[in-house]
């Protein structure tokens, strides 16, 4: 089984949610943006029916949108719950995570993605304050409850096994720890913290995190560290 991942080469961004699933499953994939450059990604968008990356392709088709991609590959990668209703619940929660990631992005780009951060700093500060006061605690409490309420496991969000949703939750917690360490520390998230440690210990994920394939967060991606948007240091 082989895949081609199309994503911007210089950021982890939303591509990382797909990359983590491919890495955890240990399948072969070509990281087209990193192998052939951003033009190859732009060309894929230009040629096909996709609006934005990440895009994942196999020899038969190509699919965009993180949640849609993960719904496509989670079963073949053995990262999905067995039960059909659980599968739909997993996808539903992944879509909630899509909303969460969009709101995280909008903390630094509240007026529009086509403007530089420097052109919208004031609005970003206002937006981030509302995000930190209201939205961050609400999303975190929701996913904390998802983990603690799973009747089938104390370890994973849905069913008995690790799924693509757990890998995505791991990435969001890592990203928040990078972008909003002080605001994150105001929230009690023991189950999410434990999940994050558990995922980081998975054999192939640990190897990936240590590898050159895994690039860190930076101020071009979704999760950006602008200290002025976070709660002040104590
Ligand atoms: N809903 C899409 C969002 C995709 C998206 O916003 N991609 C960004 C990179 S992370 C992009 O390049 N967008 C270009 C654009 O919106 O014009 C998903 O979840 O994958």
UniProtKB/TrEMBL annotation:
Keywords: Transferase. InterPro entries: Glutathione-S-Trfase_C-like, Glutathione-S-Trfase_C_sf, GST_C, GST_superfamily, Thioredoxin-like_sf. One of its GO terms (biological process) is glutathione metabolic process. Residues 86-229 form the GST C-terminal domain. One of its GO terms (molecular function) is glutathione transferase activity. It comes from the Bacteria. PROSITE patterns: GST_CTER. Pfam families: GST_C_3. This is Glutathione S-transferase.
């Amino acid at each position: 089984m082989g895949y081609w991942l199309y994503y911007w080469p210089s950021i982890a961004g939303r591509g990382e949610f797909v990359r983590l699933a491919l890495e955890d499953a240990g399948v072969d994939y070509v990281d087209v943006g990193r192998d052939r450059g951003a033009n190859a990604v732009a060309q894929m968008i230009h040629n096909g029916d996709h609006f934005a990356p990440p895009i994942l392709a196999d020899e038969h088709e190509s699919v965009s949108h993180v949640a849609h991609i993960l719904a496509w590959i989670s079963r073949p990668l053995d990262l999905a719950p067995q039960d059909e209703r659980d599968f739909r619940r997993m996808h539903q929660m992944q879509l909630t995570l899509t909303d969460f990631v969009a709101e995280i992005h909008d903390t630094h780009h509240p007026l529009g993605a086509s403007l530089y951060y420097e052109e919208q700093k004031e609005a970003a500060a206002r937006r981030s304050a509302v995000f930190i006061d209201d939205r961050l605690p609400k999303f975190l409490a929701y996913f904390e409850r998802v983990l603690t309420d799973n009747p089938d496991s104390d370890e994973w969000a849905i069913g008995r096994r690790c799924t693509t949703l757990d890998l995505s939750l791991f990435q969001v917690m890592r990203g928040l720890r990078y972008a909003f360490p002080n605001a994150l520390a105001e929230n009690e998230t023991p189950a999410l913290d434990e999940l994050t440690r558990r995922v980081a210990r998975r054999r192939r994920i640990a190897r990936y995190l240590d590898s050159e394939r895994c690039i860190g967060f930076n101020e071009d991606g979704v999760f950006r560290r602008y200290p002025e948007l976070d709660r002040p240091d104590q």
